[in-house]
Amino acid sequence: MKTLQASDPSSFKGTVILPFFENENILQARLEFKNIQVPQAIFNGKKDSQYLVKDQESGNIFIFLGLGKNPIYKEIKTAFRRLTAKQADFFQENVLLHLTEEMGEQVLEAAVSGLLLGTYRLGHYKSAIDKEKDWTSISLSISTNLANAEIIVLKAQKLAAAQLETFHLVDLPPNKITPSFLAEWAENAGKQYGFNTKVLDRKRAEKENLHAFLAVGQGSHREPQFIIMEYRPRNAKKHVGLVGKGVTFDTGGLNIKTQGMVHMKCDMGGAATVLGAMQLIADLKIPVSITAVVPCVENSIDNQSILPSEVIRSYSGKTIEIIDTDAEGRLILADGLNYLIKNYKPDTIIDFATLTGSAVGTFGYECAALFSKDDNLLKVLQECGEKVGERVWPLPMWDVYQSEMESEIADIKNYHGKPYAGAITAAKFLEFFTENHPSWAHIDIAGTAFGDSEFAKTKHATAFGVHLLLKFMENL
Fold first, then answer.
1. 104-133, pLDDT tens digit by residue?
2. Which amino acids are annotated catalytic?
3. By CB neighbour count within 10 A (0-12 exposed, 13-18 middle, 19+ buried), where does 134 fall?
4. Which residues contact 52 (CB under 8 A, 6 or more apart)?
5. How far is CA 249 from the centre of its chain?
6. Where in this chain does the record put each Cytosol aminopeptidase domain (predicted)?
7. pTM for this one?
8. Beta-carbon contacts of residue 74 (< 8 Å; ≥ 6 apart)
9. CATH class of this structure's domain 2-147
10. Where are the domains of the chain?
11. Residues 457-476: pLDDT tens digits?
12. How far, in Å, CA of 296 to CA of 341, rounded?
């Protein structure tokens, strides 16, 4: 949708969106629209409520949108996303979003990004009889008293664009989203948005001794790709390292999954988060230096697959006993983290991964599991997540859990083999390869990157972590 600044709302022709807080004076919608009156008995701004009315005199369609009493950012965003997702027929050539004086920057940003996210559809490969709606032909005018409205709208558009790109990366099938596809995506995005991309293929990864990374992909005919992205603004204040788990499909390896494999295209959700965040951060020219590592493999099965009980090497030089080939994400992250730390020495490191079912069992689908020994980093990430509706909550990183990962034959084993503390022991495994970095955080997004919602009939991507990372960078 194209966005415009509304000059005279009273003379507007088209669809008008009027958001209201609960118990706001609804009897008179807005002074600019004197012909439209709605009794509070019918509509009072209650959360998730809508009321549609057509003005016979002007021909305008008015959508009254209830935001509730004290809506948080995510609730506002979802309310507006619901409009374009479920009321698309009312979005014709011209749409006006009319905000009152008390509706500030948060409402405007959430509204615009929500409307744009609602245009997303999962039918990427449908042979549609009817032509899909052309959202680019619709003009969105905005009426607000905010002096910096243009800046906020532009930010909302770029935020939505990055999240929509993340949706595509996770939702498209694994025969499309391969390691090579993600590498090409990163190279193209770097050229478009202004960051450098280097990709290590199998031969170059062998020369770099990325043994754990290569071990996971050795059962697949698809070439593994170790992606390194560098964003270097001139006015950078800090240097942040990002790592994203990029398992483009996870069969479980020889410890083959017995259920839920149809959804394992989402196992590159951490990679998608980091790629989407790189696009957004560079697009907005955030003054933070970023080095992002995204190890991408397909965990498949053939006579070359790693075997349970094998001992493999890692980039760090430490050896790993393979207890379970379905605990593969932590292996590529181990090499990714260690490579990042040794070669780039960032001030702070954050990794994102759809790592464990244990995280889902603990927090369900509303919150990601957060791990760090840096109390300040924990606090900032929690606060940033709360502000944008991407909640994270800490689990303990006590050293007593490290004993669970001790191996008799190697330096460490990749799985403790017990039905408890799975997310914690996975985090302790990763910590083993961080060289005791003082400011590292691991975020397990297994329950939040991909799931059910009102916006599709099947599980789909959420782009969890993209906005969280932006908010975090803005607060450095």
1. 999 999 999 999 999 999 999 998 756 678
2. 257, 330
3. exposed
4. 61, 62, 63, 64, 87, 90
5. 18
6. 168-469
7. 0.97
8. 110, 388, 389, 390
9. alpha beta
10. 2-147, 159-474
11. 999 999 999 999 999 999 99
12. 18
